[in-house]
Amino acid sequence: MSRKILLLLGGWLLITSSHASMILDRTILTFSPGEPPRQDVSVKNPDNENLYLEVSVLEVTDPGTENETREVVKDPESIGLVAAPRLLMVPPGGSRTIRLVNLNGHADTEKVYRVNVTPAPPPTEAKGMAIRVLIAYQLLIFVEPTKPAEDLVAIRNGRILKLHNKGNINVLLTDGQQCQSEERNSCTEVQGKRLYPGNKLSLELPHDSGPVFFRVTSGGENTLREF
Predict the structure, then answer these.
(1) CA angle 73, 137, 132 (to 5 degrees)
(2) What kind of fold does domain 152-226 have according to CATH?
(3) Rounded Cα gap, residues 63 and 197, in angstroms
(4) What gap in Å lies between CA 146 and CA 62, rounded to an integer?
(5) What pLDDT was estimated at residue 70?
(6) CA 76, CA 25: separation in Å to the nearest integer?
(7) Across the chain, where does the E strand assignment appear?
(8) CATH of domain 19-143
(9) How confident is the model at residue 121 (pLDDT cuts 50, 70, 90)?
(10) DSSP readout, 110-133?
(11) Which pLDDT does position 109 carry in this prediction?
(12) 82 with 76: CB under 8 angstroms?
């Protein structure tokens, strides 16, 4: 084996890979009227190396529409949601807490935020010595209105089902099915989604006739509905 090949192999041996992972106890949080304005998210580090994290708050506008934007905010207090600390280290096998605080109380309509929890390279990591795979998480935060009111309007015309969230709180549609009979022994899956206040959704159903069922979750309540 030539000296050049030996040097090349030696260079490869300097490059190692590492994987930064974490476990969050939840990724969706809701601030409801009459409840404390702060909530905690626990972050666990299952690896054998220190886990360094950056936490950033995103302002969400026009959620659930084609015009939706998610912008990182430099001053979270200006939009009413604070996540702390912004930088933290989770030791191997340990856990740390990220605290979220709703500063502005509750309005007439639900507010939506996102929070990025992103692994960061160690502060003294040697350059060119490691390739790190960083997996980030994003929290979804709801601040419910002072008086939550769910109002999901449905219009059915053959294979077209139109849904409109006229309430002031989001509605999550899951477990969608169109069935050939009320007994639900012959059903086809129908894809649902989350509808934020004001959102509209038009679905093309698998069949011209037959009831459509969705599990509707809103404001802490969960019901099975027929459309």
Answers:
(1) 105
(2) Immunoglobulin-like (2.60.40)
(3) 9
(4) 20
(5) 97
(6) 23
(7) 16-20, 23-24, 28-31, 38-44, 51-61, 69-72, 81-84, 87-90, 95-102, 111-120, 130-134, 137-143, 152-157, 160-165, 171-179, 187-190, 194-195, 200-204, 212-218, 221-226
(8) 2.60.40.10
(9) confident
(10) -EEEEEEEEEE--TTPPTTSEEEE
(11) 97
(12) yes
DSSP bridge pairs for 223:
216
Q: Where are the domains of the chain?
A: 19-143, 152-226
Find, among 187, 25, 147, 223, the residue nearest to 212 by Cα.
187
Residue with tokens 């089902």: 161
Q: Please name the amino acid found at residue 126.
A: A
Q: Is 114:140 a contact under the CB 8 Å cutoff?
A: yes
Q: Identify the DSSP state of 76.
A: G
- Which pTM value belongs to this model? 0.84
Q: How confident is the model at residue 20 (pLDDT cuts 50, 70, 90)?
A: low
Beta bridge partners of 38: 101
Q: Which two structure tokens, joined as six digits, stand for 55? A: 């936490």
Long-range contacts of 32-35 (CB under 8 A, 24+ apart): 32/144, 32/148, 32/220, 33/106, 33/144, 33/145, 33/146, 33/147, 33/148
User: In terms of residues, how long is the chain?
Assistant: 227
- Residue 58: the pLDDT is 98
Asked if domains 19-143 and 152-226 share a fold, the reply is: yes
